[in-house]
Specification:
This protein is α/β, with parallel strands linked by helices and about 250 residues long. It has one domain: Purple Acid Phosphatase, chain A, domain 2 (4-Layer Sandwich), CATH 3.60.21. The chain has eight helices and eleven strands. The protein has a six-stranded mixed β-sheet. Strands 4-5-6-8-7 form a five-stranded mixed β-sheet, with no helix packed on it. Strand 9 and strand 10 form a beta hairpin.
């Protein structure tokens, strides 16, 4: 006797994630095309933060993301530490991030805020005073970009996945994580090999290629330093990175 095959248990839809973009507009367009080819125009995407700094066109990147948000794209935007530094700089008065080393500030070349300002036509070279750069930025940078930065989420989760910019503090419940760790943590998170309550998908720390460590997946492949941007797709318990030739399995080390 014939009949339909009954599926047991939920079948999840693909969910995509994009690592740190850092002002690389051409790479962002390339990755969005890969995702659309794999999952269609309405594919759900989680952006892991750090949209600006270091790369040449931070303004162009924010234009694309703000436009997608305005058009109701199925996109979720998380906040990175660089996004918070930009957001805080655009406050009145400007606000520096106390997490930074004493010698550093957002406009420093190591952090790349100077290149973000340059993408808006603002000179943030070391010969200028921060107050003058700030005044110019307040007059030039679109309010839609500032509002976008202010509205970014700290995390996003499904039944099995927890998306965040930097990581989580081990042995602390996900709902009790603090902003400082979600945006900045490295060593304590990276050195922890036991399972977390969910698989953590993050960026923040550049590596040569997307890597699945068993309890976490790092998708920051160094776009801020001119290397290719990476996107991954998660479906049920499996994950892949996306390439021009299709999906490549992303297996635990």
């Amino acid at each position: 006797m014939g009949g339909r095959i009954k599926r047991i248990g939920p079948i999840s839809k693909p969910l995509y994630a994009i690592g740190d973009i850092h002002g690389q507009l051409a790479e962002l367009h390339r990755i969005l095309e890969l995702i659309e080819t794999d999952g269609g125009a309405d594919a759900p995407i989680v952006f892991l933060g750090d949209y600006t700094d270091r790369g040449p066109d931070s303004r162009g990147v924010l234009d694309v993301l703000v436009d997608g948000q305005a058009r109701g794209r199925n996109w979720t935007f998380l906040k990175g530490n660089h996004d918070r530094m930009f957001e805080w700089f655009m406050q009145e008065p400007l606000r520096d991030d106390p997490y930074l080393m004493v010698e550093l500030y957002w406009l420093h070349q190591r952090l790349g805020g100077d290149t973000t300002m340059a993408s808006y036509g603002i000179d943030a070279s070391g010969s200028r005073r921060k107050k003058d750069v700030h005044t110019e930025a307040m007059a030039v940078i679109p309010q839609t970009h500032v509002d976008f930065l202010r509205g970014l989420k700290l995390s996003h989760q499904t039944d099995t996945l927890f998306f965040v910019h930097a990581g989580v503090r081990p042995r602390i419940a996900l709902e009790r994580q603090i902003e400082e760790d979600l945006l900045w943590i490295r060593r304590e998170f990276h050195n922890y090999a036991a399972p977390h309550p969910k698989l953590i998908v993050h960026g923040h720390t550049p590596i040569d290629r997307a890597t699945h460590y068993g309890n976490r997946v790092n998708l920051d492949t160094g776009a801020g330093y001119g290397k290719p941007l990476t996107a991954a797709v998660f479906e049920d318990a499996a994950s892949w990175t996306l390439t021009a030739s299709g999906r490549v399995p992303l297996m635990p080390k």
